[in-house]
Model the fold of this input.
Amino acid sequence: MSPTPLPLSLYVHLPWCVKKCPYCDFNSHAVRGSLPEKAYLAALIADLDEELGRAGGRQIESVFFGGGTPSLFSAESIDRLIVAVRRRGSLAPDAEITLEANPGAVERGRFADYAAAGVNRVSVGVQSFDADKLTALGRIHSPRETETTLEELRRADITNVNLDLMYGLPGQDIAAALADVEQAIQAQPSHISHYQLTIEPNTLFHARPPVRPDDDLIADAEIACAERLAAAGFERYEVSAYARDGRVCRHNVNYWRFGDYLGIGAGAHGKLSQGEPLIVSRRWKNRHPQSYMAAPVPPVDGETLMDAAQLRFEFMLNGLRLTTGIHECDYQVRTGSEIGGLRRELEILEEEGMLLSDGDGGWRASALGFRFLNDLQARFLPPRPDAGVSGPGNG
Amino acid sequence: MSIKNIRNFSIIAHIDHGKSTLADRFIQRCGGLADREMAAQVLDSMDLERERGITIKAQSVALRYQARDGQSYQLNLIDTPGHVDFSYEVSRSLAACEGALLVVDAAQGVEAQSVANCYTAIEQGLEVVPIINKIDLPSADPDGVCQEIEEIIGIDASQALRVSAKTGLGVEEVLEAVVQRIPAPEGDEQAPLQALIVDSWFDNYVGVVSLIRVVNGSLSKGSKVRVMSTGRSHLADRVGVFTPKMTDRESLAAGEVGFFIAGIKEIDGAPVGDTLTLDGRPCAEPLPGFKQVQPRVFAGVFPINSEDYEDFREALHKLRLNDAALHFEPETSTALGFGFRCGFLGMLHLEIVQERLEREYDLDLITTAPTVVYELLATDGTVSYIDNPSKLPATGSIDEIREPIIEASILVPQDHVGAVIKLCIDKRGVQKKLLYLGNQVSLVYELPMADVVMDFFDRLKSVSRGYASFDYRFDRYQPAPLVKLDILINGERVDALSLIVHRDTAQRRGRELVERMRELVPRQMFDVAIQAAVGSQIISRQTVKALRKNVTAKCYGGDVSRKRKLLEKQKAGKRRMKQVGSVEIPQEAFLAVLQVEKK
Done:
């Protein structure tokens, strides 16, 4: 056990969707016939038991049900999983428990049951309030269904709500992007995630790319939307994440601050730090739901120990996404190395205008660095590509 | 075998007129290879030669032929290249021969390159035997082609053989003609050894391999052989002939052509054109050897990764061993780092050398825009030569810049003569001669070499639908209103992009180049200004506007591998670019000038 254990989160992957979206490169699979809910749940619980054993009694600070479309799972299944975590005495009393839901894929009245099971935060895949844009994105839902879903959430008294929005959509001008943001603000969520549509390999859009607005227009739309969100009290705390009243997504913040997390479910990734000196390992699970369910426990597809160069890169990669950036104290605790050699690189980047220092060990991306975050992050890439870190989504 | 039963000959043919196919028929007929070993066109041994359908380096094959007179003959076929850039190689191959087969396509007729090579053969005293090939083609016109040979080249074609290398028709008669019409070599087997090095190449296992023609005496395995120019002696490890397989012999005697291996490891150990003799019994005089060729086209060639510099230098030395026309000397560019200024015979030669370096030596290279050599008269009266635009001194110290002028001979069917004349006028050509010869027109033009090296050959082929052929020779230097055109990136002069151009075209060239560069330079974190300048005067400007952002924001449930791959991909893309100041410039941008030319 390290003297001050890092915060620990739990990610649960529920990989099925009604239909695969053409832009999506997540590990998701269209449901064929009926959902093998029972078998999958059994595999998840076996996986969970093994992972909690590894974590050696550390408390889980947050749980995130991601997908796929987790709202396709019954509240009873979600309840059984939360109970399983709690029964091991591992769930912090104030844990944040988030569930992703897609409009058009939630049964009526189900949110109240989810809440009863312990879910206290819901992330809704709105993407847009414009019917044409939803069609262009290949979404199954209509703006009307989004309204219904938001209404259901209010009725279930779930107030910690994130709305996922996309911009840079085919045919979307600045006014249209702003209109989506405006509608999202009107729904009074605690959190808005504002993502740019990007074309990823191994997606339908990659093979048949839609015509998108030009890069300059997208950049202008982003600025306009960020301003509107700020005016409405949404503080940008990460590249795509905006929160009201400090209600950030604690689960994601833990990733970005390079905390530890267990990953259960098909293709889920975990990261665990143990021992003194610190040993940090990554492991990931069988990607395909069928092979995940068929695999012996633990259903591990791969596992690797992270070396100093990888730790340094991933710490910076994640931390610089936050508007507050990183702190040198965190660096030592989370990578097991002195900041030493890294400081020179940080100073060079400060001279180049990419980073800002608070003079007290804190470093964050400047406005320029934030606009060119990929270039900034790439400066910390390990010298040579390492085959060790690969997993779901590769290939 | 008696020297009387040896025949050394080459085949002179235009590309695609069937030389390699005919050679394959000879090998098949004389049993050099089993059928299963007959990969099509054995003689073109480099991959590159086979892919491009051209022969670059001399190769030889020794054939055993049982003639109709009942005697057995050794026929040594020495291959020759068929492209305008390589006429120098042709004269080398011909130096080992007593005769040449002039192969002409029965449908296409005589082409300029064959005319030039045929004259080289006649000048070197070779017996030329005309062969009309592809007589099986429906469009074949052997009588017309015979008339062309007589009118254009001026040799007797009444005895021309009519064959189809493809079907094998008449091939036997060609072999008989080689025996009957080409004289046997003359030489004294008892005299001290005199052997000419026709070609040398480097083999990683045995060291230098030389193709030699024994003129006098004989060379036995195990004898001590002296390379006359260096005075160094080597033990002859192996001698033999290509059948086309490498076949060892005890010795090679006067009149024979074959290979010689003496464990020479240093690549300059057996220079082409040198004479071999015996250490114990040297000959009095070396053979005349070959005339040095002057490269006409120069370009800077730089390794993309500076660590490759040493490998690059070694590769150039190895290539030069059997490519005497390749010149190089170290060059330092502020934009591209350390590399070499290389001299070539022409654009095809440049392309082939670059491809060989990349393919055979696994090097990644940037080649700058090629240039010809200019003659410079300074105000103090001294004359110098400039093969690198960035080396052109300030205008104040220049009295006159002179450009090379070539004399181009073009043969083209009447139907296309208008298009060819228009092309020559576009290229600032001056007509010297126009002659109707049967269906063909013979044109002679004077052209500025700078306008020819870039793309004249390609353009000529396209305006004449492939029917025109051409050959050229350097004529003279001539004063011209030339200026240096510089490209500036964010105010910094990029030496590797400078050009020497005509003053009248500087404005247009500068504008086109800057526009093309703007398309090729990717958007970066800041605005990039691209300017063209003549002296201190900016004549054109474009801006590559700054990228607004480069952020990818997805969150994959704690899996960073995809994000990492993306960043690595972006970084690898940058590694392939050259950093000029703080601006990243892709390789293609250094060749933008060529792309502008070819538009």
Notes: The interface with chain A takes residues 525, 545, 547-568, 570-571 of chain B (CB under 8 Å). The first helix of chain B runs from residue 19 to 29. Residues 52-58 of chain B have pLDDT under 50 and may be disordered.
